[in-house]
Amino acid sequence: MDGAWNAHCTPMLPMSPTSIFSPESTPARWVFDLSLMVYTITGVIFVVVFGLIIYALVRFRKKAADDGREPPQIYGSRQIELAWTIIPILTVLVLFLASARVVAFTQRDSRRPGSLEVNVVGHQFWWEYRYPGLDVVTANELHVPASDPAKPRRILLHLYSADVAHSFWIPRLAGKTDLIPNFPNIMWIDPERPGLYLGQCAQFCGAQHAKMLLRVYVQTPEDFAKWAAAQKQPAQVNEGALHGKEIFERTACMSCHTIAGTPANGRFGPDLTHLMSRDTLASGIADNTRANLRAWIKDPGALKPASLMPAMGLDDSELDAVTDYLMTLR
Amino acid sequence: MAMQSMTLSRPPVARSRTDGLYEWVTTVDHKRIGVMYVLLALGFLVIGGLEAAAMRLQLIRPHADYVSPRVFNQIMTMHGTTMIFFVAMPLLFGFINYLVPLMIGARDMAFPRLNAFSFWLTAFGGLLLYYSVIGGYGLYGDGNAPEVGWWAYAPLTARAFSRGHSSDYWTLSLLVSGFGTILTSINIIASVLCTRCRGMTLGKMPLFAWMSATMAVLAILAIAPLTAAQMMLMVDRYLGGHFFDTQAGGSAVLWMHFFWIFGHPEVYVLIVPTFAFVSEIIPVFSRKAMFGYPIMVAATVTIAFISLSVWAHHMFTVGMSASSTTFFMITTMAISVPTGIKIFNWLATMWGGKISFKAPMLFCIGFLLQFLVAGLTGVMLATAPLTWQLGNSYFVVAHFHYVILGGIFFGTFGGFYYWYPKVVGRMYSGTLARWHFWLFVIGFHLTFDFMHIPGFLGMPRRIYTYEPGRGWDVWNFIVAIGAAVQIVATAVFILNVLWSARRGPLAGNDPWDAWTLEWSTTSPPPAYNFATLPTVKSRRPLWDLKHPEDPDWKYE
Asked: Buried-most residue among A47, A221, A250, A323 (CB within 10 A)?
């Protein structure tokens, strides 16, 4: 799925999965359309003024055969001043009206009824997603259904922060909106094309701001329904993994992590009930493989220094047992 | 007559060997304080520049590991704080301190001792900031510079998230230097209002003085809320206050408002003095009077006024209402009108002139063209929906470095070369100056032109590393190369400053055939500036003197 974005990238710049030039959702598209107009206007101004300055520099440079006399002194002209005041004012007015329209349209009735609502909670340094209507909790990888152009359905994100300010930015889906503690925000998206959309935290939030990556999986409504139904189930504990489960519950793991259907109900760290349904670990920084998972549990600071998850000091056999246990959480 | 000019071109009081540290530390002479401000700024410029180089090295490729995440965040915080508060501000204050009394025909600033006090506050503020490196966690040299970013957004600065004392050094440093800034600003305003020479009405003041005074008013209005916010932050951290402490019901957004109602006028605090340099240099090197002087004054004051009402364009992504967003959008866009007027007036000043491309003029031309670009990317960012995408991305980093480096520093380098012969008494090396200019132009454009692109491609600012495969790698590589070229250019500049101070040819009183009062006295000027205080009849007193058949005062 990682390659799905390739086809729609602008040919002008190197292909990027996070380019604002290949919007895939209405808010991003509105910004893109407006930006074309803004680039044009500013581009024309640039060419005209730049050209005038260069022309003046060449035309009025001091010639080699200079007579040494001072040029005529001109102190100003009211008409000219008036002209270069009024023309910019009109230009600004046009730009302002066009942008104000986009602001109004984007923010108008963002709480449209029938939207899928997701609570997004920013943490140092990971993302928590809770679907209040679906009874689903997950982390770091947001799944949403694609919007059908015939029957558009928006996804309304309620943005909260558990600690400091963060910002939710998937350039191809929408502009960013900050997650600020004590200051709930909302934003909406309506992607139509299934695929994986990338982004990352866009507000400096501490040591690992750089590794607070965002992944949004846009699925067909059927796939999404299947995914949500699976996520709703409590964890299926495999008989063979009971030793690891016991270690998980004996050490401090369970004070921070929830595994539905077991006594583990901590809220500081990501919900692990369906850990293995996710593609990545630690907010998108590594593939969710057994080796990476084991390395992460052994010493989170080695992969992500200053991560808030401590190394639990497990020995090798305990590590294997806990990893085995987590690997069963599908 | 020949005898007289011979003696005048040398300082009447030779710099004796006894003129040592003691005289400099205890001085209240505006010129010496000005020089100390500039030297302080250049020292911090080297430090801040090396910090920038370290960051560009770390970002030269994805997943590089030259500095650790926390050290990167510390470098980033120190770079921003250093460059704004301990490079740009003291540099500009140094020029203003040195030049305003000379240009308005005064013997010193209105309050010379307050002037010295303000300088030392600023200097100690800078030392306090860097003391955090050894004092952040107590005294065991762990290396604990503040790591909250130079905006220090709440609640990252709350004690829960910022342990130790690194944030406190940051707070105290800005508090102390902030008082220095406010006091100097009061001094500048008082000097401009009360110490002008005979005949110099407000309408005949050099634009430099007008712009300096405007900047001073703006600085008082901008620094005051920052100072208040720093005190509130200290109350939060040590006296159990809850202004910004979100865990106890405080408001993170309140800090943002406080910071940016300082932060945006601050941009104009820095750029208005640069306008002042350019407005003195372009006319002299085009051999024409400034076009539209009254309009320039009006545009400056208008910019200052509007700049007080634009701050929340830094907050377009925090979830403001549509009406607030719209308000801050129109005010921000409006500021481009008086700014455009200035550019057109400078253009009209060159139009029909005889332009000579000496180093001061070269840097002013760099300023004009780069500031034009910075203004246009500023218009893009004033468009709130574009900021939803480009805000906090590398596009913004490129934009404001275009303003600060491409605009403010290019203009200031122009000023540096223009007044260097006046301050030092010797001419700089023109060859080295041209090398400095062209190397800096190349380095600057390699770095900051290409830095816009990763912003379009979704690269957020303030990240210590990035993922491969996002199309950002090549741009960051070019940016790092540009940074290296800029370091070389700066080395050439410093070499020129040091070498020419000893070996440069004597400059004489008026090497540029200029028109304002500072060129009527010796280079460097005596402690008392003018043997007899001048009397002026127009904005260009030396023009009147040199062209008695066609004086300015007939037309103004």
From this structure: A323
